[in-house]
């Protein structure tokens, strides 16, 4: 076991698995013991260190209780004659590893152990203040040692000095660093400031060491040799692009010409400047920067470069070019040199010729160029410069380049602006909608002078009016977002302009086939030209490459399409193309080509949605219905239920003229998507089902083979459910026959025919596998696992859940993957393998964070509470239950299940706490909601818990009766639940009841006190 105190207190098991420690006081106890690893700490010391002057009335018992809670997660805590001892080695605590590494001079490794302030989450403990102060001092000293032996970083030293203005050693290092950069006056100012503070606050003079540094600075003994800096002044900090900096440095070490290629606003100039400033030749005064944006004629190019050398030439105009090149070659040829040619795109041919000539003349020259297209000469190495990294659903977004840049520029114009709960969603949206493009982000941040971040996000659709607050000293084309795009647009040929504006109809980009069908026949060569000019990006995939525009360029192109008069025709072609595409691929989502179809839908989803939403907005009911029918089942497979539900609602709202079969199908889908057992009105559901049959919809829409039987079943109409199962079972479609058996298993299980249900599930699984439908296979495996678990075979259930999870991950079905892992975690907990259960919860939490699904995180929170409760950590389970309820109240996924699930969980927690009256009341609530739904398997589970409550109350006759009722509801008891197994072992197996389910339902409600 390893304990980390250099930041928030954390614990890892021997295999690296994080260990959940528990509440704040338990963390305090662990931290205190970890500061004396392997040594007993007296109980009196622990009481003083944990409670100080205000110990609890029975401090010894309180301490013993804390130790008991800690032992559940850290069994290495033992009681010895001298006190309590944490039995781990000193090197298993990061505090002592830090001290060892520091003593060995391995300062980078030592400082790398720090994750924040020492003892960050336990600093309110009485012992923590002195310990944290000692550790903070050690950290500062280590950082100072590292600066003393390594490179003096002015920015880092300045930041540290501002935090610790009285540390003389730090001030001396900063003075040396400033002098090394030629900033003698700044160094002397630091000394004067420190001397004043020491006098005012401590009444002392600076140390002899600091006085000596001051004297050396006065004499100029610490200053560098003056080196000319010919690069543009860097007025802002450089943020992000660490990978690009390393890549370009590597390229410049191998190639003599490196061109940074990318769209306007990507930050090519700033990146090139930073690369040049860090290049070794800059320290030798051998770097020159030639801005070409203001050069209008090719013959003026050499003159612009000479201007960067602060040279000029006159004489015969016919000889100027040759003379200029000679003088440039003379300057650059005096030694190794680096020349930055910035903004070559509008002079691309002349810049290419100039660079080629210069490289041939000057062997020791390297050129770093920036352009929106390559120079395309021999020996050129390209470095694409695209957007900064943008968050895509991740919970922690602070490390993304786009977010870092926006926050840096935002804090400059609005001091105090930071990333927190009130701003994070807006910042993520700004970064995503602006493609992570640096100039756009800087212009957006500048708006914070007069707008809130929320006002900015609300106006991103009008970005060209919004983003107009650039620096007055910048080039005109960099002061507004529109000017940036127009600069690129003006460099296009007429044919390129035509294709570029037409490409704006594709929000998700497109492959060549779609572009040639919708925009322009034989488009490849024009398209590749747009790629070369950084108007279009190409995304290399395993199949055909896709071409896309950055959103800002696409918005501008859409304006041009509107002005051209071509928009209506292009939009019509676009929508028809995606109707035909979904016609081709929709049937394949239920076949062995399912993964291939899903890949197509994933790539094209935003285009399909745009076509669908456009058809809905224009009230093109038939087209909208076709598009929705083409994408609906993909959404079901992926678990995108909310999008499907809203789209069905909107199409039905305009669909009075829809064909009768289409109308009936979507009404059935609308009912089934919102259905939970017992909620669809029986008569309404029956009418919709009959409409689907009478209009012939069941012959045209395969998804009805599963939807109609389940709709009838959920509306508590078993006769109609069986009729629709028989209809699907008679279908010529093998997938429909598999769906029929899948639905039949629900009906049989509800009727108590468990053997028949198992056979139906097995047939369904075999048929889904035969047709290649992984979705059906995964769902059936999950059902099989649940019922196998009820037999008491937890191991077999776990194996089935693992297989279902593997299939769900292969499908990239987020909801199904989360549910399979959730159930797997709970099954491990039911087996008693609590370490495995917690590992699955951790994996599920990581998966949910990565996909950014807040709704699924709520469900994982519920599973975590159950896993913790089964591990005996009742207080932690209570805390997790509270968190679940707070989050679930706003959930669109759980809806009316929140009350039921919360009651069920809280009832079990109360029972574990011995609060039997509370447990009885909470379980009664769950029985009420479950019985109202008529869900027999769920009702059986709740009834089993009420039986456990009655047994704990000493009412064994009632407990036995409740077990019999639970058995009647499900057909068997849940012997996979260790609590049920223990109860059966103590009371014996209940005799089967010869009563109807209606009577059993009445009896359990009566036992729960529900009328």
Automatic annotation (TrEMBL):
Residues 1-88 form the OmpR/PhoB-type domain. Pfam families: AAA_16, BTAD, HTH_77, Trans_reg_C. The keyword DNA-binding applies. The keyword DNA-binding applies. CDD domains: BTAD (cd15831). It comes from the Bacteria. PROSITE patterns: OMPR_PHOB (PS51755). InterPro entries: AAA_16 (IPR041664), BTAD (IPR005158), HTH_77 (IPR058852), OmpR/PhoB-type_DNA-bd (IPR001867), P-loop_NTPase (IPR027417), Sig_transdc_resp-reg_C-effctor (IPR016032), TPR-like_helical_dom_sf (IPR011990), WH-like_DNA-bd_sf (IPR036388). Gene3D superfamilies: P-loop containing nucleotide triphosphate hydrolases, Tetratricopeptide repeat domain, Winged helix-like DNA-binding domain superfamily/Winged helix DNA-binding domain. Residues 1-88 bind DNA. Keywords: DNA-binding. Belongs to the AfsR/DnrI/RedD regulatory family. This is AfsR/SARP family transcriptional regulator. It comes from Lentzea indica.
